Amino acid sequence: xxxxxxxxxxxxxxxxxxxxxxxxxxxxxxxxxxxxxxxxxxxxxxxxxxxxxxxxxxxxxxxxxxxxxxxxxxxxxxxxxxxxxxxxxxxxxxxxxxxxxxxxxxxxxxxxxxxxxxxxxxxxxxxxxxxxxxxxxxxxxxxxxxxx
Length: 148
Prior knowledge:
CATH topology: Jelly Rolls
Largest sheet: 6 strands, antiparallel
CATH architecture: Sandwich
Helix content: 10-25%
Strand content: 35-45%
Structural class: alpha+beta
Distance between the termini: 49 Å
Number of domains: 1
Number of helices: 2
């Protein structure tokens, strides 16, 4: 069906001059964007599978984001309880894990090579977890916080 939409878009233009439409909202322009979605879905599945392989404890919070968007979460953790944060990045480059307050955990580099980075967290007050991709990094980061 997408092929017929591309063919239709390339046969028409707003000025009837016989040239292909360059309207960014046309199906031809959005077709390349749709082609990247399966790869993002595949990367997400790979990152989540890496986390599943090291799963331990009861899950508190989990998710997956594009590296360029990063992870920015303030999980509801019980004071005095110990948790394990697991991160897996699949793609190219790396990301940087930071905590607020900084005493919550160790600032760590997360390589986008499908390996799992783990941090032990003991909650003493509300915390914020940020994982930001380094310049030029691409892919998906998945995370999971378990009570241990």
